[in-house]
């Protein structure tokens, strides 16, 4: 039951989550670094006053977030923070798919428009050629999809779309940005996001607009094309 000040009674919270928080706090207070070990399971059970099953459930949660790695014969070792590992595991922790897609698309819009100038300035003739190739691949696949309605072409269309955006930002000096973009497309693959024929046709047009603006070396036209990409029909799947 909630207290008068709105704080939750900790007794109502699952015990393994309280243990999870205590271990995180222990790591911070003792300034443990990657490669350092936590106390043994037996010792931590004594320190926390919990059963081994509860402790192991908390450790499993810490492993899922990439905080620790538990290895028989070695112990529980603190891990280096890894954005790729964290983001890939985040996919499995979100149950509301519709909300996930909406939030991802909002984040994509903010990030890709925010880094639009960096991407534009880093594009080389070789990367422009690759971008154009992917856009033309989408155009060709769309024609085949209309004719055959094969799911194989749909999957290849999504792959070309993902490849286009990865190429667009590959030369930007920001590893976290590229990890997040990879995460966006991993979500699409994991949840098998479907698009309609009308959206595919619009997607082809959007990517060709971006390529044409880059070829013209017109930044304003390029930025307008990026805005068009995210603002026109973007939330309609």
From TrEMBL:
Any one Gene Ontology molecular-function term assigned to this protein's record: DNA-binding transcription factor activity
Record SMART domains: FCD, HTH_GNTR
Xref: SUPFAM superfamilies: GntR ligand-binding domain-like, Winged helix' DNA-binding domain
Lineage: Bacteria, Bacillati, Bacillota, Clostridia, Lachnospirales
Claim: DNA-binding is one of the keywords in the record: yes
Region forming the signal peptide: none
Alphabetically ordered keywords of this record: DNA-binding, Transcription, Transcription regulation
Protein name: GntR family transcriptional regulator
CDD domains assigned to the protein according to its UniProt record, in alphabetical order: WHTH_GntR
Originating species: Enterocloster citroniae
């Amino acid at each position: 039951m909630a207290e008068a000040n709105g704080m939750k009674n900790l007794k109502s919270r699952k015990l393994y989550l309280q243990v999870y928080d205590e271990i995180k706090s222990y790591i911070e207070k003792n300034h443990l670094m990657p490669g350092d070990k936590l106390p043994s399971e037996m010792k931590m059970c004594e320190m926390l006053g919990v059963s081994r099953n509860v402790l192991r459930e908390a450790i499993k949660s810490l492993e899922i977030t990439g905080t620790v790695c538990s290895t028989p014969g070695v112990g529980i070792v603190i891990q280096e923070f890894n954005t790729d590992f964290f983001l890939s595991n985040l996919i499995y922790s979100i149950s509301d798919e519709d909300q996930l897609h909406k939030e991802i698309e909002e984040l994509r819009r903010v990030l890709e428009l925010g880094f639009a100038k960096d991407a534009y300035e880093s594009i080389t003739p070789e990367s422009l050629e690759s971008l154009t190739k992917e856009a033309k691949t989408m155009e060709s696949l769309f024609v085949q999809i209309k004719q055959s309605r094969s799911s194989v072409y749909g999957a290849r269309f999504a792959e070309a779309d993902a490849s286009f955006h990865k190429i667009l930002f590959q030369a930007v000096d920001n590893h976290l940005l590229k990890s997040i973009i990879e995460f966006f497309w991993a979500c699409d693959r994991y949840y098998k996001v479907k698009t309609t024929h009308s959206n595919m046709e619009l997607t082809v047009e959007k990517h060709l607009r971006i390529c044409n603006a880059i070829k013209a070396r017109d930044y304003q036209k390029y930025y307008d094309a990026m805005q068009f990409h995210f603002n026109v029909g973007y939330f309609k799947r």
